[in-house]
Specification:
Layout lengths: L5 E4 L6 E4 L3 E3 L2 E3 L5 H8 L7 E8 L3 E7 L6 E7 L1 E8 L10 E7 L5 E4 L3 E7 L3 E8 L8 E3 L21 H4 L12
Antiparallel strand pairs: 1-2, 2-10, 3-4, 5-12, 6-11, 6-13, 7-10, 7-12, 8-9, 8-11
Length: 185
């Protein structure tokens, strides 16, 4: 993540779209996907990442909307193969944007990343035949504190680029409605 990366604020304060400077030629490309000093200079934040995760999903798979009510995780997410529609939802009652969502296309082609700070639910829909999704987290996975809010809760009005029903894990099918979900202060 070189200093020439750009950061775009979103409609949710703290959620940022990061576009790294990509250097390419006939041989391929190179970019710095993360550099702590650059991240801090561009965002004013210095998260400490403790875990890296990598998932692969088929087209139509929707993962989320997940968050941890304790041991809340900040996530720096990106796609290395394919394309997803990525969504963050503000779950902080004290926030002016409580209950609002933001979505963005992340792909291997556009190389955009999304910073989702603690206090937000997160999920994505795979829109290409397959997608490989990488994310760094600021806290460890704590399954006893993991919560799921329904991906299609009408309160969020998320416009998922989807025809028909997505493929969901059992925990995503059993997610709570926003009105019944545990939230952050």
């Amino acid at each position: 993540m070189s200093a020439r990366a750009t950061v775009t604020e979103t409609s949710l304060p703290g959620v940022l779209v990061i576009e790294p400077a990509v250097f390419g030629d006939d041989r391929g490309f190179f970019f710095e996907s993360y550099n702590a000093k650059t991240f801090e200079s561009l965002t004013g934040q210095s998260p400490s990442f403790v875990q890296d995760n990598h998932s692969r999903s088929a087209q139509g798979v929707l993962r989320g909307l997940h968050y941890q009510i304790e041991h809340a995780q900040g996530k720096l997410v990106r796609v290395t193969v394919g394309e997803v529609y990525d969504v963050a939802v503000d779950m902080r009652r004290s926030s002016a944007t409580f209950g609002r969502s933001f979505g963005v296309v992340l792909s291997a082609a556009n190389k955009k990343q999304l910073w989702v700070p603690p206090g937000f639910a997160h999920g994505f829909l795979t829109v290409s035949p397959t997608a490989e999704f990488l994310y760094k987290t600021t806290d460890y996975w704590a399954p006893e504190h993991e919560r799921t809010v329904l991906w299609n809760d009408p309160h969020f009005a998320i416009e998922w680029p989807l025809e028909g029903e997505p493929m969901l894990a059992a925990k995503d099918k059993a997610g709570r409605s926003f009105g019944d979900a545990e939230t952050f202060a």
